[in-house]
Task: structure prediction
Amino acid sequence: MGEIEYAEASGHYTIVFTITEKIIIKMTWKTFLDMIDNKFIRVHRSYIVQRGYIKLIKSNEILLLSGKSVPVSRQCYKELEKKITTEF
Result:
C-alpha cells in the first residue's frame, strides 16, 4: 500500500485512497481516526486529507495534487482556515 492521500468513512468501513489504489478496510471511522497521526486534516464529517497532498483549498472542496477533489464542510472550512493561517 502506498502513502495515504485521503480517506472516507462509509458505514462500518473506511475507504483509504492512495495515488494508485482504493482500499476498503472493515474498520469504523472512529477507530481509523484514532490510529492516524497529525499529518491528516479533517475536512468533512466523512473525509480526512493528508496535508502534503493539498493543492488548492476552496470553500466547498479541496483539490489534491493527484487532481482528485474532496468535499469540505462549512464547519471544517472555518477550522481549516484557522489551522492554515496559524501554521504558515
